[in-house]
Design goal:
Blueprint: H1 2-6, H2 8-11, E1 18-24, H3 28-35, E2 44-46, H4 48-57, E3 62-70, E4 73-79, H5 87-93, E5 99-105, E6 111-117, E7 120-125, H6 154-166, E8 179-185
Antiparallel strand pairs: 1-4, 1-5, 2-8, 3-4, 3-8, 5-6, 6-7
């Protein structure tokens, strides 16, 4: 629960729409290509809010991805994007040996967590439905428990789980740090 408390800022970020992916053992050029960034695309350093504003202004034209390296992990942040929410991408970027974990939040409240390890999809679920009798029909990992996702803290709990699984603690300051930002065609 301590990690959830570290991320309480996320629970009140009502207009925060993004996908955050944490990837191990992959070079940046492979990750950018898998996301759909052209080889000749040059990054522009932007803070998250500026990237989100640009993404929203050009929503039908292109998406954006931002990269940050933290130790052996590559973080990919998509302002109001969802490419990193796809199971095919997760499988591809975790091959042949590696880990891919993404947390997706839409502008209208949808949430999803995706995990792949060594080219195999190991999780894909909406934490809103954990512990519900009907469930979401999704793929739940063995580490997932209903108490991990209290309904009033779904966003902070999602970041806490991503930290637990990847070992990367997400810092709110990364949203205000200029990061290399690339366009991708939608």
């Amino acid at each position: 629960m301590r990690a959830v408390n570290r991320y309480t800022w996320a629970d009140t970020a009502f207009d925060l729409a993004w996908t955050l992916a944490v990837i191990t053992d992959r070079p940046e050029r492979d990750v950018l290509a898998a996301y759909g960034v052209r080889d000749d695309e040059q990054p522009v350093d932007m803070v998250f809010q500026a990237a989100l504003d640009e993404r929203n202004e050009h929503f039908d034209d292109y998406g954006l991805v931002q990269l940050a390296r933290r130790g052996g992990h590559l973080l990919v942040i998509e302002p109001n994007g969802w490419v990193g929410n796809g199971p095919e991408l997760a499988r591809a970027l975790s091959q042949p040996r590696g880990l891919f974990v993404s947390v997706y939040w839409s502008a209208n409240g949808d949430l999803q967590i995706v995990q792949a390890r060594d080219g195999q999809l190991t999780a894909r679920f909406d934490p809103t439905f954990i512990g519900q009798p009907a469930g979401a029909g999704d793929m739940l990992p063995g580490w997932c428990e209903p108490e991990d996702f209290p309904l009033d803290h779904l966003k902070s709990a999602s970041l806490a789980v991503a930290e637990r699984v990847t070992g990367v603690a997400f810092e709110e300051s990364w949203l205000t740090e200029p990061l290399p930002t690339y366009r991708l065609l939608t």
